[in-house]
């Protein structure tokens, strides 16, 4: 057992956490939409074909916002194919994921679903094969009152009130050679700037997200961000970050260390944003929308090969990854990395919502179950609200093969002043228990704290066969002093400590 100390002072506060940090992502890919959130005829389907059992899990997960409709899908998508009478919508060959798109689920269906799921929509526009006009017409359809062509079309389709979608993503991964219509940073920057200008001329209330690099592994990373921002700074509000981590085969220590790399990624992009800001002598700060993130195990080449090898199908099942206890630990630390940087990371979308790299899994014509990653997300979404505290951790660390120093204990502390509650999230990256002492300065507590733990003796355990195999347990910690918490943190575990606090004047 190793020892660790965490110091939290009531006066050392970092930033308010934006609830949109707890978002997800829906793309027309595999079974994410069809038989995921939408399955007419299912015993749990409502009058619109939306699976009520899935909506219930989305609410339980605490998802606050959802990005739609892509993803790679959006770069070939014409939104006009997915509205109007369903019997008149075209069946098309969707080339991003080699599938048949029926267009039975489109903009209006998503917005109806979003209302029922009680989430904020984030919309992406096609800047791969289309451009300014297509983006502006979609914005008019969604956000403008009746009286002109596309807003009147929305009314004719049964939606009189504007949707008021607040955030718009300008394309998807436009740096990637896999992206249909991928571009140079100069070409994308010009197009994104023109599109954002036009969209904000039509609806000044919206915020826009320009594409950053699709990952830190692409050759143009950092240069892409700089060039794109130089073209778009006046009209952009956010820049996107995307990151998936695999590498389970390299061992648990190396695998779990990747959240430290994610923190470095965020800080690097913030630095680029602020460099361009200085160059332009602007008072405006560009924030971050981390609009795709998650754990990914299947090699990209294997995914591409499986897509290329199959026939054209409607909603083919592929890339339906099964997550382990180990995956849940990295997943939790990735979300914690964004919380740590919440002064600039203002929105994030876990990828994806159902079936593909997802917390929620559906069985076509049958039930729904959740993976281990569901639980850290749901607890952080529920209780990670308020002000991020500047905490100090004293704990041992280890060095990775990349010569990065990684603390065995990963943590964030959050003060919810409305609830008079201090919440601490922790990941133990070591196969050894920790004896943790939490020292509160300027706070005093009651007689006990709540301690929720996600742990399994087998770090490779999953929920595929036994859907309740990896689940959190909740207990209590008796407090001997009103300014200290002493507790044991289990090996390879995710933890949440909640305690009622008062502040000294």
From TrEMBL:
<dbReference type="GO" id="GO:0046556">
    <property type="term" value="F:alpha-L-arabinofuranosidase activity"/>
</dbReference>
<comment type="subunit">
    <text>Homohexamer; trimer of dimers.</text>
</comment>
<dbReference type="GO" id="GO:0046373">
    <property type="term" value="P:L-arabinose metabolic process"/>
</dbReference>
<comment type="similarity">
    <text>Belongs to the glycosyl hydrolase 51 family.</text>
</comment>
<comment type="pathway">
    <text>Glycan metabolism.</text>
</comment>
<keyword id="KW-0326">Glycosidase</keyword>
<dbReference type="InterPro" id="IPR017853">
    <property type="entry name" value="GH"/>
</dbReference>
<keyword id="KW-0378">Hydrolase</keyword>
<keyword id="KW-0119">Carbohydrate metabolism</keyword>
<dbReference type="InterPro" id="IPR010720">
    <property type="entry name" value="Alpha-L-AF_C"/>
</dbReference>
<dbReference type="GO" id="GO:0000272">
    <property type="term" value="P:polysaccharide catabolic process"/>
</dbReference>
<protein>
    <recommendedName>
        <fullName>non-reducing end alpha-L-arabinofuranosidase</fullName>
        <ecNumber>3.2.1.55</ecNumber>
    </recommendedName>
</protein>
<feature type="domain" description="Alpha-L-arabinofuranosidase C-terminal">
    <location>
        <begin position="291"/>
        <end position="493"/>
    </location>
</feature>
<dbReference type="InterPro" id="IPR055235">
    <property type="entry name" value="ASD1_cat"/>
</dbReference>
<dbReference type="InterPro" id="IPR013780">
    <property type="entry name" value="Glyco_hydro_b"/>
</dbReference>
<dbReference type="Pfam" id="PF22848">
    <property type="entry name" value="ASD1_dom"/>
</dbReference>
<dbReference type="Pfam" id="PF06964">
    <property type="entry name" value="Alpha-L-AF_C"/>
</dbReference>
